[in-house]
Write a structure and sequence with these properties.
Largest sheet: 7 strands, mixed
Structural class: alpha+beta
Radius of gyration: 36 Å
Number of helices: 22
Protein name: Nucleotidase
Number of strands: 24
Helix content: 25-40%
InterPro entries: AAA+_ATPase (IPR003593), ATPase_AAA_core (IPR003959), DUF7025 (IPR054289), P-loop_NTPase (IPR027417)
């Protein structure tokens, strides 16, 4: 009888498990009669090799073999093959089960039903062979016993009982572990496979950075145990779980393949504390499933190209101002992400193909591809190599070795883009509860602030709050904001009708903002994006303009490998940025454009090529684009034919500086509100400076004031300007 308490001592647990395993084997020998075994089971043994690639099966037992029980040659329905292996001392050999072949057709029919879903079994094939270790029997043991109990044919039932006796004796240690350890919620590394049958719903614990402390659910489709290969176990002692999940690939929902590794551990471990936990051992499983189901519905809602905000880690522990400061703007876009998720049909989630690699329907002694290799192999003889799969450009995504078709960089009409009617939601599949439960906790997207692709946690994605305050507080001369807003609103309303008479040419609005540094050019573009509730994409091309002599050797090497007459990483990045901004219906900001749109000359062919490429992109750009410069006179003349509106910003006057000081010093409220008086504001406004310097001064003064848990004072401003600007006020 199993113990009432879990075993703690590792050595003691193993000794008890071994004794229980021996008892199980003896019990099976008593239930399976010797007469039935001799009549139904034929034993084959590993004999002397005839070639290097195959095992040679013989009827006679090899000499010098340790025999646990009487094994004699018998007849036909079950063929048992046994390997001959050396013992630890090397003086004797031992017998180990290799496989059991089922030759009785009615028995095969019963087993096809028992192991339905495993290893793509086909009932019409007459071969059915189970390889050791017989894990499929352990995983489907109750189903196997039920099939034996309800079998009406005495002949078939007797054969199945003999088969059960054989495999249960081989699985005796696993059954002992199940009774003594798993029943108490603990497991050893060696026997991890017993709790992860193919088809099992499992839960992977969340990452450390998870905001909601929720992990992911998967369906196990295959378990790769390291003990099956001793050499591999020495190199990589870990289990590998091959799983199925659900994800959005940018066009549709589908099944994904995920691999989870479980590292080795000593002794026993509580199953509920493992990195991956079968749902039946998961504590508070119902509540976790309910929360993950709600997250899956949120994931389904967010699928598409969507403009969102992303909360920082531990946002609940931050103040409101800190949370706003660290919240980023993101574009959810799985379709255009470089790490795009490739999915298969959703039917693979609802009825997944399960693999054990231990059930085969091909003859055990079949010759390998290329034929047998003789024992004395010629080293100069060419070895057989597996043919390299040929990619089929016309194959769909869900075909093996299918190459995804090339995607155009620019899409004129993306139904999933932000701003389209209902965001393309009518094209999403309706998912059932299991598919929603298996949806990933992360989504692919692009961080607009850090300008990089990343994975974003679904539970930290929130809607972007509409905020017109930045545009309203923008300090510009009279008429400037009305003119800019008129152009923007007309472009958003009329679309392609706004631009060229040539179809497909332009359709966007390009504005050039020129003026001295710190007069509000960049803030204009940022506040317009906030006003129209659109993402702001900033393009940085300064890193593309390296010294021509440094870049030419690399370019020559790259062009020599390319079939295209013009092959450049710069061109690719430039095209991708314009393309993504167009798909996202974003406001594209190119700050300080004079550094890469300078007048073309014969002395710089590298710059000429970049300017020409940039002019072409401007001509066909369909959305909003802001160019800023403080050196308008150096721009290439051809740029003006692509610009719809040029705005020159004058230097800040007294009233403008006063408004800017009040804007930045009035950002804090409550106990951190500024105490600067109107007279002190007039003093600050009298100092000739620009908006960027005012912003930096107030930011530094705010940090000094927060150190003492108070608002900004005039004295703080004086100290900062004295230290950083060298001014005495």
């Amino acid at each position: 009888m199993p113990s009432d308490k879990p075993l703690q001592d590792d050595d003691e647990s193993y000794s008890i498990i071994e004794r229980l395993a021996d008892a199980i084997r003896i019990e099976d020998d008593l239930h399976a009669g010797t007469e039935d075994r001799q009549r139904l089971v034929q034993d084959l043994y590993e004999g002397p090799k005839k070639c290097q690639c195959c095992l040679n099966w013989v009827h006679e037992m090899p000499p010098d073999v340790e025999v646990d029980q009487d094994n004699e040659d018998c007849t036909y329905p079950l063929i048992v093959r046994r390997r001959v292996l050396a013992t630890m001392n090397g003086n004797k050999k031992r017998i180990e089960l290799h496989s059991i072949e089922i030759r009785h057709p009615q028995v095969r029919e019963v087993l096809f039903d028992v192991f339905e879903g495993y290893d793509n079994l086909v009932k019409e094939v007459k071969f059915l062979i189970f390889k050791a270790p017989f894990r499929p029997f352990f995983w489907r043991w109750d189903r196997f016993n039920a099939a034996i109990d309800k079998e009406e044919s005495e002949v078939v039932k007797t054969i199945l009982i003999q088969l059960r006796s054989l495999v249960r004796a081989d699985l005796a240690e696993a059954f002992a572990v199940k009774d003594e350890l798993v029943s108490h919620g603990i497991i050893t590394f060696k026997h991890l496979w017993t709790i992860f049958p193919p088809g099992e719903l499992v839960y992977e614990t969340p990452r450390i950075t998870s905001q909601s402390n929720l992990g992911d659910f998967f369906i196990v489709t295959e378990v790769e145990a390291p003990h099956d290969d001793p050499e591999r176990y020495q190199r990589h002692p870990r289990y590998c779980l091959f799983c199925k999940g659900t994800s959005w690939n940018g066009s549709s929902f589908g099944a994904t393949n995920d691999n989870i590794s479980l590292s080795s551990f000593k002794g026993t471990r509580k199953i509920a504390d493992m990195r991956v936990v079968p749902v039946k051992y998961l504590e508070d499983a119902a509540a976790i499933k309910a929360r993950c189901l709600e997250r899956g519905k949120r994931h389904h809602e967010l699928a598409g190209i969507t403009y969102k905000a992303y909360l920082p880690e531990k946002a609940d522990e931050m103040s409101e101002s800190e949370r706003k400061q660290h919240t980023n703007r993101i574009m959810l876009d799985s379709r255009n992400c470089p790490r795009r998720t490739f999915t298969r049909h959703l039917s693979e989630v609802n009825k997944p193909q399960l693999y054990t690699e231990l059930i085969t329907q091909s003859p055990v002694d079949a010759a390998p591809p290329g034929g047998h290799r003789p024992l004395e192999d010629n080293p100069l003889r060419p070895r057989y190599r597996q043919p390299i799969p040929v990619h089929d450009n016309d194959a769909p995504y869900d075909e093996p070795y299918a190459r995804p078709p090339p995607r155009p960089l620019v899409v004129e009409d993306d139904s999933m883009a932000t701003g389209t009617e209902d965001g393309g939601k009518n094209k999403k599949q309706v998912l059932n509860e299991l598919e929603l439960l298996l949806l990933s906790s992360y989504m692919h997207g692009y961080c607009l602030k850090e300008r990089k692709w990343d994975d974003f946690e679904v539970d930290r994605i929130i809607d972007v709050e509409k905020n017109t305050k930045p545009f309203d507080s923008l300090v510009l001369p009279d008429g400037y904001k009305d003119l800019i807003l008129s152009f923007v609103e007309n472009q958003l309303k009329d679309g392609e009708a706004f631009d060229d008479v040539i179809n497909g040419k332009g359709g966007g609005l390009v504005m050039l903002l020129a003026g001295d540094p710190g007069v509000g050019k960049t803030m204009t573009a940022e506040s317009v994006a906030e006003k129209i509730h659109a993402p702001l994409v900033k393009m940085e091309l300064s890193d593309l303009l390296k010294d021509e002599r440094d870049r030419m050797p690399e370019r020559r090497r790259r062009d020599s490998r390319s079939r295209s007459p013009v092959s450049s990483r710069d061109d690719d990045e430039l095209t991708k940025t314009f393309s993504l901004a167009a798909k996202w219906k974003a406001v594209l900001l190119i700050d300080e454009c004079d550094m890469y749109l300078e007048k073309r000359s014969d002395d710089s062919p590298e710059r000429n090529r970049l300017v020409a490429r940039f002019l072409r992109e401007l001509e066909y750009y369909p959305s909003l684009l802001f160019l800023t410069t403080n050196r308008e006179r150096v721009l290439d003349p051809a740029i003006y034919s692509r610009i719809h509106l040029t705005i020159n910003y004058p230097a800040l006057d007294l009233s403008s500086r006063l408004a800017i000081w009040k804007t930045f010093l009035g950002m804090e409220e409550g106990e951190f509100a500024s105490t600067v008086t109107d007279e002190e504001f007039d003093t600050l406004a009298s100092i000739e400076t620009n908006g960027r310097r005012i912003k930096n001064i107030t930011k530094t003064a705010r940090m000094m004031a927060k150190r003492y848990d108070r608002g900004i004072t005039f004295e703080d401003i004086r100290n900062v300007m004295r230290i950083t600007e060298g001014l005495q006020i």
